Amino acid sequence: DAMVIQNPRYQVTQFGKPVTLSCSQTLNHNVMYWYQQKSSQAPKLLFHYYDKDFNNEADTPDNFQSRRPNTSFCFLDIRSPGLGDAAMYLCATSRETGGANQPQHFGDGTRLSIL
Amino acid sequence: AQKVTQAQTEISVVEKEDVTLDCVYETRDTTYYLFWYKQPPSGELVFLIRRNSFDEQNEISGRYSWNFQKSTSSFNFTITASQVVDSAVYFCALSEALSGNTPLVFGKGTRLSVIA
């Protein structure tokens, strides 16, 4: 059974048209992450939530925002997508346990195309 | 600064051959975690192993084995008797252990193709 679920699997949007990607989890993990992975590159962390605390990576463009309304759901909002934002977006979760860095569990990803 | 280097961009092997994927890391932390993930063509990242910096025991899981050598800052991954289903991109990753939600630093990945 899928534990980190990303919808949709494929998303097409127009240049400049806002788009939202969603992620839900059944693991009850307190940390949720969003990564961007461009073709043939490693995943790059955009931001993460530790419970309700939002942590933005320094080089994440302002165009990217995130919301976490509850433990189970996390959204990635791209306000004005450019052609350079076409990528696979990966959501991951982990359980913070007092310093022991637990593995991150990834969803299947959403592949975003920009027309 | 943390860094993970996977020098092999692509490897091709014939089925049943053994193959080793190299991973070299840099960190100033004395406590850290190392990970391997597999990314098949379908796109999801599948967790394979986590190793903390104090545990240098090698690990074997079926056809997979990992060799952690702190002296050379390496955490290599060997697949024995490779199969076509092993074809994927494999990522090595590192994180500090100061708290449980520090981000992963990924290497650029090694694309493994296993040919029947």
Into which percent range does the helicity of residues of chain A fall? under 10%
Mind describing the biggest β-sheet of chain B?
6 strands, mixed
Q: What sequence of helices (H) and strands (E) makes up the elements of chain A?
A: EEEEEEEEEEEEE
Largest interface by Cβ-Cβ < 8 Å = A-B, 32 and 26 residues
Q: Distance N terminus to C terminus of chain A?
A: 33 Å
Low-confidence stretches of chain B: none
Described by the principal axes of the CA atoms, the overall outline of chain B is globular
Biggest sheet descriptor of chain A? 7 strands, mixed
Please explain how this structure is put together.
The complex is a heterodimer of chains A (115) and B (116). Chain A has 115 residues and is mainly β. Chain A contains no helices and 13 strands. Chain B is mostly beta strands and 116 residues long. Chain B contains no helices and 12 strands. In chain B, strands 2, 5, 6, 10, 11 and 12 form a 6-stranded mixed sheet that branches. Chain B is globular, with a radius of gyration of 14 Å. The model of chain B has no long low-confidence stretch (mean pLDDT 91). The A-B interface holds A 31, 33, 40-45, 48, 50, 55, 57, 88, 90, 92, 94-109, 111 and B 33, 35, 37, 42-47, 50, 52, 91, 95-104, 106-109.
